[in-house]
Amino acid sequence: MRLEGVHQRSIGRTADGKGARILDQRLLPWEVRWVELRTAEEAARAIREMWTRGAPLIGATAAYGLAMALAGDPGALDGARAMLLATRPTAVNLRWALDQVADAVRALPPAERAEVAFARADAICDEDVALNRAIGEHGLALLRALHARNPHRPLNILTHCNAGWLATVDYGTATAPIYLAYDAGIPLHIWVDETRPRNQGALLTAFELAGHGVPHSLVADNAGGLLMARGQVDLVIVGTDRVTANGDVCNKIGTYLKALAAHDCGVPFYVALPYTTIDRTMASGALVPIEERDPDELRLLTGPDAAGAIRTVSVTASPAYNPAFDVTPARLVTGYITEEGVTATL
Fold first, then answer.
1. Which residue numbers are catalytic?
2. Alpha carbon 134 to chain centroid distance?
């Protein structure tokens, strides 16, 4: 997507082809800084500390991390895979991408493993772009049909967290239909949830939409119900870190509340995802491991002060509990926007 007026992917190989280049998303939107990852340990740290995040992008970063490990030691396959897999427990794309690379190299002579691993990581990135573009095309048809019901005004869409190109390699999942609809001339307005505690909506989704020129307004996480009750939301589109075999959706904490409000107000609730985020080995969302993150993510806020200096301040002196995800039951999902089309069931 567009970053400082230039088309960019969120990840790619370094100029010498031996590492991965990513955005340090912790600094956005205040600073755009690209960093190079040169080892599997650096890739693991980037995933664990959320320099890079989003289920598909986590998978791509881990794939490159495994390739870097094999470049340093062709016998490090299983150890490096285990280390990278342990970085984030909830997003299923992480395991999928690591398995893709491991399966591609396991039977090869050690001297050939690194080159094939890097090639497989490249292919994972290219496929992600194609999948998200296809999600966007199918979602575009949905948005076009919904706008035709009220052609006199913009289509109002509510998002939660960041499921944009910063969470994928390009286009995003939930944002892909938005970008394609905007480029097609469909008038849009996006309600962007702040998405506490890490504020990925306020910091990342708003940053993306502004860069693309899409009209949007930031709202407090708890404003969604009011907006829906007032008829100011035509549909909700979210991404997901894992969808289980029965269609339950694990996504950023707060998604379940949006789905409940949407159901009560008769607002369509859609989930955008590629096949790589479907976990058919898990029967229901009740079995998904919910990541519990550092309470300081909830207790602290970081941003520029009046003089422009980046500072971190406390918002409470109390203990905090910080689950990162919740599960939305399939019964609350109107439909899933996938690379194969829009469907009521998976």
1. 241
2. 16
